[in-house]
Amino acid sequence: MIRLFSHYVPRNTLFIALFEALLLALSVYLAVYISAGGLHGDALSIRPEAALLFAGVMLAAMLFMGLYGQASVEGWTGVFFRLVAAFALGLSMLYGLHLAVDLSDWVAGPAPISAAIALAAISAERLVFSRWRQAAVLKPRVLVLGTGSRAAQVDRLLRASTAGTMPRIVGFVPFKESDHHVPSRYVLELADGESVVDLVDRYKINELVVGVRDRRAGGMPVDDLLACKLRGVKVTELSSFFERESGQIRLESLNASWLIFGEGFRQNWLRTVMKRSFDIAASLALLVVTLPVMLLTALAILLTMGSPIFYRQVRVGQGGRHFSIYKFRSMRNDAEANGAVWARSNDDRITPVGHVIRKLRIDELPQIINVLKGEMSFVGPRPERPEFVADLEEQIPFYDARHSIKPGITGWAQVRYPYGASIRDAQEKLQYDLYYVKNHTLFLDLAIMMQTVEVVLWRKGSR
């Protein structure tokens, strides 16, 4: 993982994106070369900005299609179909730009040829990558100190992951732990006179993850850790390991001191001004783009369900303040006659039009009003209802930390976790929200917005 603008990005994802950007740019020059019949004529007259524009638009389309997200479990065939869809979307975006800005010098001819060349090259490159991404030689070798319940979370994370970017766990070293919570075949007992440094040398370890719960009274081998650090071996605290590898701050491994003394949670006037400017610009742009859809939705609701078109509901915002959120009405008027309840799968309170607008996330669009009023941000933790917040704060530690910033229309938890409708779901989503609260930057906001497009296009997690 590489920490880029406070956000962790897999090294291979970054490498692939840069390599594919180069392939996309070169495909433009090759297309012009083919169109001109060789090096004569206009073969070398293409402007660099045209190649950069083509590469940028196609990379954005590939990101929208989830090709730079978590490793796909669909196999290479699924990736290929996503590539085809991405290039079709990218060409549509280019021709849309052509309507606004004259790109006739190269869009009409070279762009389709460039797309065909790039599609073939990137498909071949992805095929090679799919065969090599699981190679052990490409993964850092990790040794976990501890075999208790905290250390066992590492084993569960790796078992649950379908990504090929996870490090290789060589083993777990017990320290004053009588019960092992990890598979016995992974436990590496220290022999008499043997130290952690010896294990690091023997197994060619690149990183040590400290998962020891009790670090007092000799519970942690400080001298060994220092010796490994001086030898260039990375030493990582368990909470930091989860933050890096899963994009979460795991509650089970979390210490309040790590939150207090660690990096992140930065708030200052410049960040506030930048985020507010970004919110206004993004909301106005979304309003312009989606206005026809919103008008058709309002008409459909009015004709099939009658008034009201909009639904207002009290939510908890920054600092615990209450505000009214705006949504298109997707449920019957008597949906909460018996009080507030969690939404559930196949909820019979949802109307036929409501099912459609929820699947496509259209019901969330009126929240643009909340963003423009300053009650919400474009990106942030989803605001919850006061009735649920009171229970969640009692049952889930650090839950109120998500109220330190403005809630958002979309967020890190929304693009990484399916729709939540229980205490357990709220706890899982909080772990993503804490990651966002700790690391939020304009770069992460842009990444979340692009992944939100993928979620909408592929209808992930809607209910």
Automatic annotation (TrEMBL):
Pfam families: Bac_transf. Keywords: Membrane, Transferase, Transmembrane, Transmembrane helix. InterPro entries: Bact_transf, EPS_sugar_tfrase, Sugar_tfrase_EpsB_2. It is found in: Membrane. The keyword S-adenosyl-L-methionine does not apply. GO terms for cellular component: membrane. Its main location: membrane. Belongs to the bacterial sugar transferase family. This is Sugar transferase (PEP-CTERM system associated).
